[in-house]
Amino acid sequence: MKTESMKSDEVKKILHKTVRHFFPELGTWINEMNDPRNENSTTYPLEQMLWQGLLLFLLKLGARRQLNVVFDTEEALSNLGVLCGRDVDTAAHDSTLGYLAERLGPDQLGRLRHRMMRGLLRKKCLARYRVLGHYLVVLDGTWYVSFNKPHCEHCLRMRVSTRDRENGGKTGRKRKKSTKSKKTVVYYHAVVEAKLVTANGMALSLGTEFLENPGRDVDVQDCELRAAYRLMKRLKNDFPRLAICLGLDALYANETVFDLCKEHRWKYVITFKQGSMPETWNEYVSLQQLQKDNTGEWTDGEVRQQYRWVTDIGFRGPCFNVLQCDEYKPGKDREDKHTPFVWVTNFDIGRHNYRAVARAGRLRWKIENEGFNMQKTGGYNLQHPYGMHPVALQNYYLVLQIAHLISQLMEKGDLLRTDVKRLCGSLRNFALLLLISLRTTTFDREELAALESARIQIRLRGPD
What we know:
- By secondary structure, this protein is α+β, with helices and mostly antiparallel strands.
- It folds into 2 domains: about 5-110 and about 390-405 and about 415-455, no CATH class; about 135-370, Alpha-Beta Complex (Transposase Inhibitor Protein From Tn5, Chain A, domain 1), CATH 3.90.350.
- The chain is built from 17 helices and 10 strands.
- Strands 1, 2, 3, 4, 5, 6, 7, 8, 9 and 10 form a 10-stranded mixed β-sheet that branches.
- Strand 8 and strand 9 form a beta hairpin.
- It is globular, with a radius of gyration of 24 Å.
C-alpha cells in the first residue's frame, strides 16, 4: 500500500474481507427479514437495498440523493453485486430506498444488529477489552433530528437556547454566557443508545430505545430515564448471560438503576456528583476520615493521579463503594491543572483493581467522542433527516449504527497494517478511498474466488 492507487484498490478488499470474516451469515440474516413490499411489484431484492443503505453511511455521502451518482458506473454495480452475493444490473433510486425505509419495521434492523453483535461476542472478538471480566456498556441519550415546527404526533418538544440545539440536546452544561443565544421551541426525536465501548476507541451499538410521545397533547413527555429503564430490560432479554458493567453519568445515580443492576446481576460505574445525592455525598466525605488507608497513587510522566476510596456506603437499601481520582497535569501557568473524578460502583475496590475501575469510569466518554460526535460531525451526518416519515427516521438511524459498526471493524482491524489516520490522513479520506475504489475498480474474478475459499484472521488493533 505504497501509492494512492494501491490504497484505493486495497480498501475495497478490506471491506469485503471484514464483512465476510466477522459476519459470514449476513446475507442469510438479511434474507430472513420480513420484506414489507409487494412481492409481485418488487424489482430490487432486500439485500441489495440494505447494502445501498449501508454504503450511504460507509461512504459518508451525507445525503440520500448522492446514491444516484455513486452507482452510475459499471464498476460500482459490479462491486455492489459482490457485496450482495448476486448480479446487479441497475441500482435502486434513492426514492425507492426511501419507500422501503417508510415501511420496514425498525425491529427488523434491530434484530439484524443484535445478531451481528452477538456473533462478535460469541467469537470473543472483544474479550480482550473487558474490564475486570465485564464488557463496558455505556448508556446515554441524544437528539438525532430536530425541526422548527411539529414534525409528527410523536415529536418531543423543548424550549432551549440556540447553543443547546447546536449541541444536539445536551442541555445543562456550563457555557460562556452570550447575548446572541436566544430561546426557542424545538421539536425533536431522540434516542437512548447502549454502546459497548473499548479501550482501543470503539463504540459499538448494542441497543437503541427511541423516545416518543404517544400523541401531540400529553401531560408528561417521554424522557431519557424512562427510555433507559426500558432499554436496560431489553438488553437483559437480548443478552441474558453477558457480563455487563454499565458506565453511566450522574443522571442515572438513582435507586431504580441500582435495583435493576442488582436484579440483572450487572456491575456499574456511575459518575458521582454532590448535587445528585447530597446526603450520600456527605456520608462519603465523613467516611473518608475513617478509611484513611484506602489510598493509592500512580504517575505517568508529568501526569500524576491520586486515588482514595470508601466502601459500604448505604443508599436506601443497596450498598456501594465510592472511588475518587484526583488528576494533576501541568497547566499553562506553573500551577498544575487539577481534575477530580468521582464514581459510585458495586465493584469491590482494593489496591489490586482501583485503577481498572477508574479506567472503566473514564471510558464512559467514548460514547460521546467515538459515538455521537463521530456520527454527527465525522461524515455520517446523523442529524440530517434522510427521510421525513417517523418510521424512516428510525430505520436510517439503525442502518447508520450498523454501518458505523462495520466501519470501526475495518478501521481497527489489522488488515490495514497501520493506524487508519496515519495511512489515509483522516477517517473521511478512508471513506473517500473506498468510494473511489468501488466506482473505478472491480474485483478480479480469480482473486475473488481465492478470497471466498481462503480462511483469514483479523485481529483488532489497539490497547487492551
